[in-house]
Amino acid sequence: MCFTNTVLLFFVSSKNQSDEGAPTAGRMQQKRNIQIIEWEDLDKRKFYSFGLFMTMTIRATVYPATLIRTRLQVQKGKSLYGGTFDAFFKILRAEGVRGLYRGFMVNTFTLISGQAYITTYELVRKYVSQYSEDNTVKSLVAGGSASLVAQSITVPIDVISQQLMMQGQGQHLTRFRLDSNTETGKPKKVFGQTRNIIAQIFAADGFRGFYRGYVASLLTYIPNSAVWWPFYHFYAEQLSKLAPSNCPHLILQAMAGPLAAATASTVTNPMDVVRARVQVEGRTSIIETFRQLIKEEGFWGLTKGLSARIISSTPTAIVMVVGYETLKKLSLRPELVDSRHW
C-alpha cells in the first residue's frame, strides 16, 4: 500500500504549500516565477472527479508491481521466485496478464479510503490550527489521524485482495484457496472468487479476520507518511541549490518525489514485510512474526519485495507530481482561469 500513501500525500500537497505562509510563497514565486494554486482556488467537484480518474489510471499501471511485491514478501526464502523480474516473467508465463491483476477489482475500492483521508486531513488540520500555527505539528497530527481513518477502511480490502493476489502460483503460501469451480479464469467469475475468499475468511476468523494486520499496517504507513515529507522537502531544497535559477520548479518536484518515496520505502519495508505475512498467513503476533522471519531468513528477509516496492513507487511519484500540478490547473475555479498564466 505504499502506492496509496504516495497518492494521498500528493492530494494534500497544495494545502501544505498554502499553509507555509505568505512570505515563503512570495519568495518561491519571485524566485521561480510560479503562481501557486491555493486550496481555496480549486473547484472541489472537478478536483475530486479528475483526481479519482487519475488515481485509477496510475493504480492500474503499477498494480502488477504491488502483486509481485506481496508474493515476494510472503514466500519462504526464494522458494518460488528469485527476484522481482524473475517473478514477473514466471507469473506472465504461467498465469498470463490476468495473473498480474489478481484482486485488482477489489483493490480499487481503496479509492474510498483516499477520499476519507483527504476529508479527515483537512478537518483535523483546521481543528489543530486553533491550538498551534506550527505547520509541522499540524501536518503530523492531521496526517496521523487521516492515516488511522484511511487504514480502517483499507485493511479489510487489503486482506481480501492479497488473498486473491496469492492464488495461482502462490496459492500454496496462503491459508485460503479458491474452489475449483470459481478458478476458471472467466471474467464473470471475478466477483465469484471474491465472495468465495470473503466467505472463507469469515468462516475461519470471523469479522476480526478482515482486520488482521491492522496494527502492523498502522506501524507501516503512518511512519511512511512521516518519513516522506521531511525527505521530500530536503531533496527539493538540495536540488534547488544545484539547479539553475531558471529551472522549472515542477522538474525539481518530479525528482524529489521519487527520491523521497524510495527513501521512505527503504526505511519502512521491514514492517511492510511483517504486515504482509501477518495478513496473508493469518498470524496474530507482530513480534513473533518478526522473530520467525529473522530466524528463518536473517536480516536480509526484511528487504523482501523492496525493489518491487521502489519500482512501483518511483514512477508513481513522478507521475503524481506532474499529474497533480495538471490536476490543479484543470480544477481551477472558472472565474480564476483568466487570472492565471502558465
Automatic annotation (TrEMBL):
Sorted alphabetically, the keyword list is: Membrane, Transmembrane, Transport
List GO BP terms, alphabetically: branched-chain amino acid catabolic process
The membrane topology of this protein is:
Multi-pass membrane protein
Q: Which domain of life is it from?
A: Eukaryota
Solcar repeat start and end residues: 45-127, 134-238, 248-330
- Per the record, the coiled-coil ranges are none
Does the record's keyword annotation contain Transport? yes
Query: What are the subcellular locations of this protein?
Result: Membrane
From the UniProt record, which GO molecular function terms apply? branched-chain amino acid transmembrane transporter activity
SUPFAM superfamilies registered for this protein in UniProt: Mitochondrial carrier
The family annotation for this protein states: Belongs to the mitochondrial carrier (TC 2.A.29) family.
Q: What is this protein called?
A: Solute carrier family 25 member 44b
Q: Which organism does this record belong to?
A: Amphilophus citrinellus
* Record lineage: Eukaryota, Metazoa, Chordata, Craniata, Vertebrata
